[in-house]
């Protein structure tokens, strides 16, 4: 029996977008359900303390820094009483660029646009994680990998106007592009990951290493 026959018809060609989405549907639905429960818990916790869950998701901590970059650009600093200086140069530009684009094209504020970007990116990331795990192992492992990512103790940041979900989506799909031999796509996504978080450099290095090994 040939290797092609051994691997079966599922490996004869990549499924189209609709077919790939159907295969990923259980993982995406499971991810959405887990994150919805997490957001419900956050809403109940916030209400019990007379706080706004939406404000916590869009206008606190790093979210504020990203919003200020989107609105005012770089150069903003905060000087603490102990002399430390915090600069928004520490925050990479891709998320603020998308916030600015979302605010320009829709009635959304920068913070609202960042929240929408993170929600959409989290679903794209879940799909990318599924795609990588399914390609390397099988569909069941893909679903499990996505659910494990969804239940991370720090999973709430996946729904905040932070860059984690955007970076994870770009990194996962870049790795999937490497696995499927789409080198230009892999390089482009790795470059975008590098514009999202400092660890994007690791994604770029991984793509380069894989390319050198392959060629």
Structure description:
The chain has 215 residues and is mainly alpha-helical. It has one domain. Helices cover 69% and strands 3% of the residues. The protein contains 10 helices and 2 strands, in the order ααααββαααααα. Strands 1-2 form a two-stranded antiparallel ribbon. α8 (164-179) runs parallel beside α10 (200-214). The longest helix has 32 residues, at 17-48. It is globular and about 55 Å long. It starts with a helix and ends with a helix.
**Uncertain segments of ≥5 residues (pLDDT<50)?**
1-12
Structural Rg:
19 Å
Strand order of the largest sheet: 1-2
Number of strands: 2
The number of domains: 1
Assembly context of the chains:
single chain
Q: What features would you highlight for this structure?
A:
globular, two-stranded antiparallel sheet, mainly alpha, 2 strands, 10 helices, 215 residues, 69% helix
How would you concisely characterize the structure shown here?
The chain is mainly α.
Helix and strand topology:
Layout: H1 3-7, H2 17-48, H3 53-58, H4 62-72, E1 77-79, E2 85-87, H5 94-105, H6 110-136, H7 139-150, H8 164-179, H9 183-194, H10 200-214
Antiparallel strand pairs: 1-2
Helix pairs in contact: 2-6, 2-7, 4-5, 5-6, 6-7, 6-8, 8-9, 8-10, 9-10
């Amino acid at each position: 029996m040939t290797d092609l026959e051994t691997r079966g018809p599922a490996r004869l060609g990549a499924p189209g977008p609709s077919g790939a989405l159907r295969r990923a549907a259980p993982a995406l639905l499971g991810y959405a359900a887990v994150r919805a429960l997490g957001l419900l818990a956050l809403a109940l916790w916030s209400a019990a303390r007379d706080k706004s869950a939406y404000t916590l998701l869009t206008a606190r901590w790093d979210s504020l820094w990203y919003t200020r970059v989107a609105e005012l650009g770089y150069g903003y600093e905060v000087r603490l009483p102990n002399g430390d200086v915090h600069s928004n140069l520490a925050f990479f530009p891709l998320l603020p660029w998308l916030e600015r684009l979302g605010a320009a094209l829709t009635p959304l504020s920068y913070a609202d646009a960042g929240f929408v970007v993170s929600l959409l990116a989290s679903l794209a990331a879940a799909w990318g994680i599924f795609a990588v795990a399914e390609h390397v192992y099988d569909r069941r492992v893909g679903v499990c990998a996505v659910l494990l990512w969804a239940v991370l103790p720090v999973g709430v940041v996946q729904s905040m106007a932070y860059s984690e979900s955007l970076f994870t989506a770009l990194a996962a799909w870049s790795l999937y592009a490497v696995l499927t031999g789409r080198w230009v796509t892999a390089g482009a996504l790795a470059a975008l990951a590098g514009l999202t978080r400092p660890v994007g450099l690791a994604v770029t290095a991984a793509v380069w290493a894989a390319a050198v090994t392959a060629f």
